[in-house]
Structure formats: structure tokens, C-alpha cells
Amino acid sequence: MRDETTYMPEWAPEHAGSEFASHVMVGLTDEPPATKKPPAKASPIPAKFKRMKAKDYVEGVLNGNRMLLARAITLVESNAPQHFELAQEIVQQILPYTGNARRIGITGVPGAGKSTFIEALGCYLCRQGSKVAVLAVDPSSSVTHGSILGDKTRMENLTREKNAFIRPSPSGGTLGGVTRKSRETLLLCEAAGYDTILVETVGVGQGETTVRSMVDFFLVIVLTGAGDDLQGIKKGIIELADAILVNKADNDNKQRALATRAEYEQILHYLRPATEGWQTKAYTCSSLTGEGIDDIWQVILSFEQLMKSTHRLESRRQQQTMIWVKQMAEEYLHNLVEQNPKIMQCYTSVQDQIMQDQISATRAAQTLIRAIETELQNMKSRPV
């Protein structure tokens, strides 16, 4: 009698011995054997995670629950209409607990070492007892439009710090790489007790003014060779900087870094300071050895002390909030226009006429504006 679990195939000779190495395993039947227990069912998702209310998220964020903080940020970043009201209710409730963190924006040309510097600075601050949140705006995948998570993988040491929180967010093609939800994410991190918020951008050299409008201190990281850096990062970004940092000042590159710092000092001499009463200067550091990290942090603390003593910090943040409101209103109007079929039909018609040289640009704009005004008036007259 053949074994029910392993038996010889039909083509094997009768009374075949162990010299036949081939065996056939019995397949699974439709019904499990009576002696075996049915497979265990997956554990159900706890009811508290199926449908949480705003107060549940708020309590979790205020208690420093990293998982609920991450979930709240996901709601804020979501473009789904069903998430908008809940996200805004969460942000509204945590507002009284925000505003106590240092907000530092960090940008620079690709390859300048932004992520390495942030990791060095973040680890330094965590050792000092600070709680650091890093909002690393990643380039978006062209396929899924999600975050590539490159920044988080480059901050391996910082991810091990219990007082550090790193949140890569997809730029989504936004000019300059700053997501439109970064401000609300920043507020959530402040409410969770993080006293230092570092906002890193993609650093493509354009659109970085968005960062300037949401942070207190704006740091531009450059490489050695001022001429090349100015071509890559543009003069406009330098004019927004509260400090210029020449990174990678170590080993054989240290002398070149010091020379580059001197060149930037000359450039800054002819530029208007980004912050009234504060003189923007250039510094050097090595993110690998840690040399210069403490010096640049002391610069940031001196800047903060000056801003608070002159009451400019509060004024700057109020202005930034109004810029935020204006940008959201403009975004709403832009989406309203793009989602209106009649306006887009007019736009297509005007585009065709322009392509055929049948209408001037000014007349085309007037036609489109009249279509927008007509639709807005029709929307106003419709019953709510």
C-alpha cells in the first residue's frame, strides 16, 4: 500500500525501491482533512481605526502618538473630498497648540548635501534634548505620483533617533517641490511637541520662495565654486537667504570651501538683506565630520533672539498666514475655472482661433474673461 502523502508516480516499476528518487506529493483537496484545523482568519481591524473622529486624532497628536500624527498628516495631504472636512477640523482644533517651534527652511542645488546636513543637524539637536521634525519634500514618481522616499533613506541615523520624526511628502510636480499642504503638516508637528521643524525642498532653483513664506529662517546650502552655484540656484534665491552655508568643507575640499565662502561674502555685500536688521553672511561646515554644525545653529539662535526682541517674528508669521490664505483662494478660483465645462469650452475655442491667427492675444483674453464672469454670475444666481 502506497503512502498517502508521498507515493511513486504511475510510470515507476512495481516494487521500486529507493533508487527511484522522484516522488509525487499529494495535492490539496477541496475539503480540508478532518484532523486539520481550518486556517485562522485575519484579525479584524480594530473599530477605533475604522472610523476615527477629529478629537481622536487631536488627542493622539497632542500626546505625541507618532502613528496618529502620521495618519493626520495623510488626511491633510489627501485630495479626496471626503477627507477635507475632517482634516480641517483637526487643524482647527490643534491651532492653540502651535507656533512654539523654530521653523527653518533649507534649500540648495541638487548634490549640495541638503539631506546629509539635515541628518547631521537633526542628530546634533536630538542629542541636545530637542525634538526635531523633518518635512522632506521628495520628488514625485512619474508613474504613481507618490513620494520616492529618497530623503528618508539618506537619513538613516536620524531615523533611529526617538525624538526625530521624518515625513517625506511627494512634491506632486509643484514648482519648487513644496506641497500645498506643507503648512498644515508643519502645524501638526508643532502640536505634537516638536520644537524644531526643518523643511527641505527638492532644490530645483525655482519656486523656493514658497518655503520663504512659511519659515522663520531660510538657509541656502551651496557647493564650492560660487560661479557655478549662482548659475544653478539663481540670484533670486540668494536674496531670500538669511544665511549661506558652504557644505562639504572637509579633507581636500576645505580650502576651496573657505574660498567659496569669501566669494559669497563679497556677493552678499551688494545684496539687500532678506530680513531687516539682520546681515546675511556665509559660513562653512562639514556634514560628515560635524565641524561647523554648532556654529550654524548658534547663528540660527541669534537670528531667533533678534526676531523675538524686535517683535518681527510675530509680524512675519502673520504676514505668512495672509499669504497662505491668498494662495488658497487663488487655488480655489483656478480649480473652479478648470472644472467648469463652459469656460473650458471657451478656452478651447479661443486656443483654436489663436493657432489660426484669427484673434489677437488681448482679444482672446477678453473673451475668456467674459466667459468666466458670466459663469460666476450664473453660479451666484443659482439656489443653494
Q: What's the gist of this structure?
A:
The protein has 384 residues and is α/β, with parallel strands linked by helices. The chain is built from 15 helices and nine strands.
Keywords:
384 residues, alpha/beta, seven-stranded parallel beta sheet, globular
Describe the structure.
The protein is an alpha/beta fold and 384 residues long. 49% of the residues lie in helices and 11% in strands. It contains 15 helices and 9 strands. The strands form 2 sheets. It has a 7-stranded parallel sheet, sandwiched between helices. Strands 1-2 form a two-stranded antiparallel sheet. α10 (226-240) links the parallel β7 (217-222) and β8 (243-246). α3 runs antiparallel to α8. The longest helix has 27 residues, at 312-338. The model is unreliable at 42-49, 139-150 and 173-177 (pLDDT under 50).
Radius of gyration: 29 Å
The oligomeric state of the chains shown is single chain
Mean pLDDT rating: 81
Shape descriptor: globular
Structural class: alpha/beta
Number of helical stretches of at least 4 residues: 15
Distance between the termini: 82 Å
Query: Strand content of the residues, in percent?
Result: 5-15%
Strand order of the largest sheet: 5-4-6-3-7-8-9
**Largest sheet, strands/sense/barrel:** 7 strands, parallel
Beta strands, count:
9
**Portion of residues within helices:** 40-55%
Task: Write the H/E string, N to C.
Answer: EEHHHHEHEHHEHEHEHEHEHHHH
Spans of 5+ residues with little confidence (pLDDT < 50)? 42-49, 139-150, 173-177
